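Sample 3 of the quickstart, ligand S-adenosylmethionine:
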Amino acid sequence: MNSDHLSSRLKTVAGYVKKNSRLADIGSDHAYLPIWLAKNNIINFGIAGEVVRGPYQNAKNEISKAGLNNTILPRLADGLAAIEASDHIDTITIAGMGGTLISQILDSGVDKLKNVQNLILQPNVGEKILREWLMHNGYKIVDEQILAEDRHTYEVIVAEPVNDKITYSDKELTFGPFLVNNPNEVFYQKWRSEKQQLENVLKQIETSKKPNIDKIDELNHQIKQINEVIGNES
Ligand code: SAM
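Result:
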C-alpha cells in the first residue's frame, strides 16, 4: 500500500469522504488516506493526527514527498487534540484501531466534534462498543460495510450527529443495523467463525472442574443470537 494505491479497507473508508470535506484523519500513520484523498481532489484540507513520533515523522515525510505541505498538516497529538478550531474540520476518519480505543478518542475530544458532520470509523475489533458509544452520544449510523482483506475482516461504520434520541437493539449493536439487514458472504463468514470460537470456549468451560454457570449462560445466549441471524448452519 502507498498513497497512490490504498488497501481495499482504506479505499472503503475513503469512499465515504464527501467532496470538499475538511478532514481530520486520526491515527494517520503514513498519512496515506488523506494524501490519496487530496491527490484525488476529494479534500482540499486535511489534518494527519498521530500520537507516536515515528508514524508522525512518516506522515510528515509522505506529505512532503507528495508536495502537499499546504493541504495536509501533520500534527503530533493525542486523538482529537490534533484538531484546532481554526481548521473547521467537518469530517473525521479513524481507522485501523480497536473500537474501544476509537470510542475513547471520541469521548476525550467531544468538544472537537461540535461542527463535525461525518464520522467514518473503521474498528478492527470491538464494533459493538463503538456502536454503543455512537448511540449514547447522539450519532446515527447512516451506513456500514464489511469486507475481507488479507484474511482479516473489517467493518466500516459511518455516522452523523442527530438531535433525536437514537436507539439500537442489542442485535443491531452486535451485528450492525445495516449489516444485519444486508448480510453478504463476508458477514456470514465472520459470524460463523465467531460462533465456532464461542462454541470452543463453551466446550472448555463445560468440561472444566468448576464450570462457571453465568459464563455458560452468556455464551449460550451469544451463540443463540448468532444462530438467529445467520441460521443454524455450522
Ligand atoms: N489509520 C491507519 C490505517 O488505518 O491504516 C493506521 C492504522 S495504525 C494500525 C494505528 C495508528 O494510530 C498508529 O500509527 C498509532 O500510533 C495511532 N494512534 C493510536 N492511538 C492514537 C491516539 N490516541 N491519537 C492519535 N493516534 C493514535
